[in-house]
């Protein structure tokens, strides 16, 4: 089986679990060097790092830097450059959420969400682009959200950050269009992850609902298909965007949301 990304290096933020780890696994399967980033149990992260190397036949590096701090982002990008020369594929996936009415929204939570979900993508992009330009090839992918295109109440910081990612992506696409570098968003709806699954029992209790009612009437209320997006479906879109077939897809926002934003 051919390794379509052999010789390329992919850096994925927020990739020790969930969607980010799915990206890392699929790109490793195609032979890419991988830089993963995020928090978690050190032993579990090391197992995943070793598994990525086995899958890719290349190298995998773990960088645990805090993406809310520009100096640490610079250190992470320097580590990647020292190990691999630079980053060919950048996937900005790190993020967090907080839900509260605007008048009660903690200022520190706003600052943290904007910093992690949006500002970190600016810093990783500005640092990755010079190498991509030198190679005349690059892929920048943002994990946005259906909330990059629509809004929900009580999620002011998250919705703002995700809309901002969409604007940053369009700007990058225009600036880099003649350098063989594309920039795109992937905007999933509700994705089936352990984080989502673990919310179900508490919601069942709080709302006096069955598991099926919580899934269909709460979590999937906005998705006409009534099906969760899977991490593998999101990762498959990223792999396609890295391919030569997607060389003229740039500045796009690729929705995988079961029809949510079509309404």
Explain this structure.
The chain contains 9 helices and 7 strands; from the N terminus they run βαβαβαβαβαβααααβ. β1, α1 (about 20-30) and β2 (about 35) form a beta-alpha-beta unit. It is an alpha/beta fold. A 7-stranded parallel β-sheet has the order 3-2-1-4-5-6-7, with helices on both faces. The chain folds into 2 domains: about 10-190 and about 230-260, Rossmann fold, CATH 3.40.50.720; about 190-230, no CATH class. Its EC number is 1.1.1.30. It catalyses: 2,5-dichlorocyclohexa-2,5-dien-1,4-diol + NAD(+) = 2,5-dichlorohydroquinone + NADH + H(+).
Quickly describe the structure.
Its EC number is 1.1.1.30. The chain is of the alpha/beta class and 263 residues long.
Strand-residue fraction?
Answer: 5-15%
Basic shape: globular
First CA to last CA: what distance? 41 Å
CATH class of the largest domain: Alpha Beta
Largest sheet: 7 strands, parallel
Structural class: alpha/beta
Low-confidence stretches: none
Q: Which helices and strands occur, and which strands form pairs?
A:
Blueprint: E1 9-12, H1 18-29, E2 33-37, H2 42-56, E3 60-63, H3 70-84, E4 89-92, H4 107-135, E5 138-143, H5 156-175, E6 181-188, H6 194-197, H7 200-207, H8 211-219, H9 231-241, E7 253-256
What tags apply to this protein structure?
alpha/beta, 9 helices, about 260 residues, 2 domains, about 45% helix, about 15% strand
């Amino acid at each position: 089986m051919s390794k379509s990304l052999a010789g390329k290096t992919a850096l994925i933020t927020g990739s020790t679990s969930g969607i980010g780890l799915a990206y890392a696994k699929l790109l490793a399967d195609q032979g890419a060097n991988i830089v993963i980033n995020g928090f978690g149990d050190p032993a579990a992260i090391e197992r995943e790092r070793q598994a990525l190397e086995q899958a890719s036949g290349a190298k995998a590096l773990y960088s645990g830097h805090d993406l809310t701090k520009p100096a640490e982002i610079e250190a992470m990008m320097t580590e990647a450059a020292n190990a691999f020369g630079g980053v060919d594929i950048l996937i900005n996936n790190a993020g967090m959420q907080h839900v509260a009415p605007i008048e009660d929204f903690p200022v520190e939570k706003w600052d943290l969400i904007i910093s992690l979900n949006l500002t970190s993508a600016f810093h990783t992009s500005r640092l990755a682009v010079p190498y991509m330009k030198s190679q005349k090839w690059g892929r920048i992918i943002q994990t946005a959200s259906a909330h990059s295109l629509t809004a929900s109440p009580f999620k002011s910081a998250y919705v703002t950050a995700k809309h901002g990612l969409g604007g940053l992506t369009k700007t990058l696409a225009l600036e880099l269009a003649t350098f063989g570098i594309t920039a795109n968003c992937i905007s999933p709806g509700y994705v089936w992850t352990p984080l989502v699954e673990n919310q179900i029992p508490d919601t069942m209790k709080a709302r006096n609902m069955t598991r099926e009612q919580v899934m269909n009437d709460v979590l999937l209320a906005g998705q006409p298909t009534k099906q969760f997006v899977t991490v593998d479906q999101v990762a498959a879109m990223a792999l396609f965007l890295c391919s030569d077939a997607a060389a003229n897809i740039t500045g796009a926002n690729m929705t995988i949301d079961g029809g949510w934003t079509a309404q």
